[in-house]
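Deliverable D5.2: sample structural annotation.
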Amino acid sequence: DRAAIYAFLVGLPFDFSGRQSLRSDEADALVEASSAALDATRNEARTAAALAFVEVVAADGVLEQRRGRVQLAEDLVARTRTLFAAGTATQVDLSLIEAELGEARAALYGAEAEAAQRRATLRALLDLEADDPLVIDGLEAPASPAGQLAAWRERGLEQRAEPRAYAARRRQLRISEDRLFAETVDPLMLRLEWESQGNSQTAHTMGVSLSTTLPIARTAQGERAVARSEGDLALVEQGIAERTIQRDVVGTAARLEAHLRELEALGTTALPAMEQAREAIVAQLQRGATDLFRVIGTQRQLVALRERRVEVLRDAWRARLELERAMGMAGDLAVASGGDR
């Protein structure tokens, strides 16, 4: 014991590299990038649900036209049977219109299956139960993008989350690179020493020292190179995303405008003319001035035009929703379930 030496050493590190603040900044940038990515996912999910809603509306519209076709065929069957009983129609005429009725019913059943499938898809996207009721409102034609294209392009660049996600990702990687650099610098160490020797020649010593290391060859250069490269990649991807957004806005706006012109032509010219033609041909059939072949052909053309209008309306809304997706503002379409919008 008399020869024992007692020593105490206290070391206080002082970090001047800034690694702690860089870690905090890196975490903030990572949260920002994740939030932007989540916003982008939300935009895609809302667009998918809205598109599914439009598909349900279109399927219901086709179903309504198929029902109308069945009703028209049933009316013709009744008239043809009356004419056949009166001796002014042949068995061939009766067989033809009954075949048309069978084909119309088969098409109706196919439309019912398609409508059921569209509803199932919408329920899946909205995470609804299989027996949850869906109240589907009809759709009018969407608004024309004429005169708003330039503003919508700018809105897409401002509101879409993908460029923000890439920008935040790039910032996070740049901070990671700086942090990896800072972590190669050891902190400044302040040491306080005290020593006492316990023999007859008792001696006490005290000392204060400062120490650090200056790395000759820095470590973690590979990780820094990876972070730098990924940051450059994020910058390139940000530029690609911005150009893609502008192309999507321009392309979908042009497609929407074309669908709206087609919809107008069908609604104001083609359909009214074909409806008048069918009424005139049916009247001629009653007077015996035409044959059943022409009536059936005109009726099919009318139903095909009506279904085409439903399809064009669907395509117009698809373009509108894709335009809103390109601008980062997927639209809210009314979908009701159990009274909750």
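Annotation notes: The helical segments are 19-85, 91-126, 149-159, 161-182, 221-287, 292-326. The longest helix spans residues 19-85.
The annotation will be released with the project's public dataset once the embargo ends.
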